[in-house]
Amino acid sequence: MTVTVENNATNLPPVPPEATMVTLKIYRFNPENPDAQGFESFRVPALPSDRLLSLLLYVKGYLDGTLTFRRSCAHGICGSDAMRINGVNRLACKLLMKDLLPKDTSKEITITIEPIKGLPVEKDLVVDMEPFFDAFRAVKPFLITSGNEPSREYIQSQADRARFDDTTKCILCACCTTSCPVFWTEGSYYGPAAIVNAHRFIFDSRDEGTIERLDILNDADGVWRCRTTFNCTDACPRGIQVTQAIQEVKRALMFSR
């Protein structure tokens, strides 16, 4: 089903003269009426400085208040607003319209927006994140130490800290995991984000849970499911070298770290 919504409302804010009218083609799903799922199109004004999230907020605020999506900080930190934008996983708050708008403003542009794949859709662009967080929790993403509680901070060299710096940047947006074809078809696969967060502690010189985490990732749902397609690295909004981190965990398993 595809529906087009015309902007006939009289209470819309004035359109800036430098704005370009774009069509947002948004996937809609209501669990109370699942047979009506499909795409709905909205015509909205866009400035080059707008984020895609701004356009979604325009739709929800002025055209259709039932549109449902997650968002929070709007600055690419919380990871709440991950969605498929023109077939690619992105954070709506980080994607600037200047990177999507055509140079010729007279040309029509349609932006397709869908929920991230591989997780159950709850409503419109909102998915159930619990399977994702179950995998995250399963790899024990916290510092494991033994002995008495320290009376001062753990000392670590700059070189030791740099060893896992890249994987500390994860914001758990699920862009990488839900871009993975293996995760789409093998729902039990831990997925790239869980492995990235395991990597962050496996290579932390202060941690004592490395063997335990490697044992977890060595099972049928662990790192060996990765097919090295690089989708995860391409999708990461923080620029983490996700595929490299997965390969480093594989090497740690093969060569005892």
UniProtKB/TrEMBL annotation:
InterPro entries named among the record's database cross-references: 2Fe-2S_ferredoxin-like_sf, 4Fe4S_Fe-S-bd, 4Fe4S_Fe_S_CS, Beta-grasp_dom_sf, Helical_ferredxn, SDH/FRD_Iron-Sulfur, Succ_DH/fum_Rdtase_Fe-S, Succ_DH/fum_Rdtase_N
Pfam families per record: Fer2_3, Fer4_8
Superkingdom classification of source: Bacteria
Stretches assigned to the 4Fe-4S ferredoxin-type domain: 160-190
EC top class named in words: oxidoreductase
UniProt keyword annotations, A-Z: 2Fe-2S, 3Fe-4S, 4Fe-4S, Iron, Iron-sulfur, Metal-binding, Oxidoreductase, Tricarboxylic acid cycle
Cofactor: [4Fe-4S] cluster; [3Fe-4S] cluster; [2Fe-2S] cluster
EC number, UniProt record: 1.3.5.1
Similarity comment: family membership: Belongs to the succinate dehydrogenase/fumarate reductase iron-sulfur protein family.
PANTHER family per record: SUCCINATE DEHYDROGENASE [UBIQUINONE] IRON-SULFUR SUBUNIT, MITOCHONDRIAL, SUCCINATE DEHYDROGENASE IRON-SULFUR PROTEIN
Protein name, UniProt field: succinate dehydrogenase
Organism: Gordonia alkaliphila
Species classification: Bacteria, Bacillati, Actinomycetota, Actinomycetes, Mycobacteriales
